[in-house]
Amino acid sequence: MIKKARFIISNTDHNKCPAPDKPEFAFIGRSNVGKSSLINMLTNHKDLAKTSGKPGKTQLINHFLIDDKWYMVDLPGYGFAKISKDIKSTWEKMIADYMKSRPNLVAVCILVDSRLEPQKIDLEFILWCAQSDLPFVLVFTKADKQGKTKTDANVRAFLDKMIEMFDDEPQYFVTSAEKATGREELTTFIQNEVQE
Ligand code: GTP
Ligand code: MG
After folding, report:
1. What end-to-end distance do the CA atoms of the chain give, in Å?
2. Ligand 1 center to 167 CA (angstroms)
3. CA-CA distance, 55 to 57, in Å (whole number)?
């Protein structure tokens, strides 16, 4: 369980992020996939991270200090069609620069909408992480939005893609911010990594 969560700083510039002296876990995924909602659910806060029904809400790199021990990072989403090409490449560069500049980044939590079949943009991002040697886990979101059979089928289809790409299944979690599904599993995973 997470006992304490505190907002530290928002940035566009990775150089101004907190010193990389604590283990860090970044949350990333398509716009509107539920990154900020998941952070609120994991930390048991209503409004720690700003959420919105409209994609493109989070536009900065946001650091939260958890239990005085590790950083949780809320990032802007990728693949948001309604922003201009210029902003898109600025965001993508900001995210890529951030991810490559954090030696303390223990794992990237890549959020994937459990309602959808595998999406090209997620697979491309995952490939980029793998090619950049960034360890990642998958977090399927919004599992409350459909029945378990449908969630299981979409998760299975995504994992099959992972096997096609990497001959292996990454570690994964099925979550719902609405119902707090997966909170225990994901928090335990992170806390075990932090203690190592
Ligand atoms: P950006 O910051 O725009 O990239 O989006 P985000 O990935 O941070 O998504 P956010 O947490 O703002 O959530 C987007 C929308 O999805 C909001 O309307 C949330 O209430 C909703 N949502 C997020 N997670 C869940 C979930 O587990 N279940 C349900 N039913 N809705 C969710
Ligand atoms: Mg957000």
Report:
1. 17
2. 31
3. 6
Q: How is residue 53 written in tokens? A: 């029904």
Interface pTM, i.e. ipTM: 0.99
CB of residue 59 inside a 6 A radius of ligand 1: no
Q: Ligand 1, atom 31: nearest CA belongs to which residue? A: 142
Q: How many domains is the chain built from?
A: 1
pTM of the predicted model, to two decimals?
Answer: 0.95
Find the ligand nearest to 52 CA.
Answer: 1
C-alpha of residue 2 to centroid of ligand 2, in Å:
20
CA 143 to ligand 1: nearest atom: 27
Cβ–ligand 1 contact at 30 (below 6 Å): no
**Whether the CB of 144 sits within 6 Å of ligand 1:** yes
Indicate the range of 17-21, 83-87, 141-145, 154-158 predicted with least confidence: 83-87
Domain that holds residue 163: 5-195
Q: Which residues contact 120 (CB under 8 A, 6 or more apart)?
A: none
Specify the CATH number for the domain of residue 164.
3.40.50.300
Return the pLDDT at 72. 98
Q: Other CB atoms closer than 10 Å to residue 169's CB: what's the count?
A: 12
Ligand 1 closest atom vs CA 50: 12
**pLDDT tens per residue, range 154-188:** 999 999 999 999 999 999 999 999 999 999 999 99
